[in-house]
Specification:
mainly alpha; elongated
Length: about 180
């Protein structure tokens, strides 16, 4: 008798979809709001505060997700019928974990190098620097945003390929129901 589940643990399902929404929100906020808002703008500190809080929550939830993933039974690996596509799918999943952790770390490093916790959360009276462009972690943060967007696109394309081309009901594995 096979005791391997056909679906992911409900905690993993909930974390997957919550993190997906939060990542899209944080990437959108960084790309379309923060990037375009001058550091001299009085609105920048509030926007940074929100972005930093969301980033901290994402980093924390990703750690919880990783720990849950290694401690729960998982469905059998899905196959696309191609060794190359299977390896690509595995690489995308690992890449997402690594890139999100790198994104959180580079965001934290940028914040500390620019003294943002003091300015944004404690209102020290200090002003934001004219730019964050000179900070290496900020450059890494921008690269990770682009990498995460590309990996998310590949992840979605892969899921849709399984669901609609292979018709293997792959997406039901990442939804609630009997395991």
């Amino acid at each position: 008798m096979n005791n391997q589940p056909t679906r992911y643990h409900p905690a993993l399902v909930a974390l997957h979809w919550l993190l997906a929404l939060m990542l899209v929100f944080a990437l959108g906020m960084g790309t379309f709001s923060l990037k375009e808002l001058s550091n001299a703008s009085p609105d920048k500190i509030g926007a940074l505060r929100g972005h930093m809080i969301v980033g901290l929550v994402i980093g924390s939830l990703m750690l919880v997700r990783l720990l849950t993933r290694v401690r729960t039974a998982l469905p059998a690996p899905a196959t696309a019928g191609s060794a190359l596509l299977d390896k690509l799918g595995h690489a995308v999943h690992i890449g997402l974990y690594l890139a999100v952790f790198a994104m959180a770390a580079s965001g934290a490093a940028t914040a500390f190098q620019a003294d943002l916790p003091q300015i944004v959360f404690f209102g020290s009276g200090a002003t934001l620097p004219e730019s964050f462009a000179h900070l290496l972690p900020r450059a890494v943060h921008g690269w990770m945003a682009k990498l995460i967007a590309a990996l998310v696109a590949l992840h979605v394309i892969g899921a849709l390929f399984h669901q609609f081309r292979l018709k293997d009901r792959l997406m039901s594995r990442m939804w609630f129901g009997p395991r």
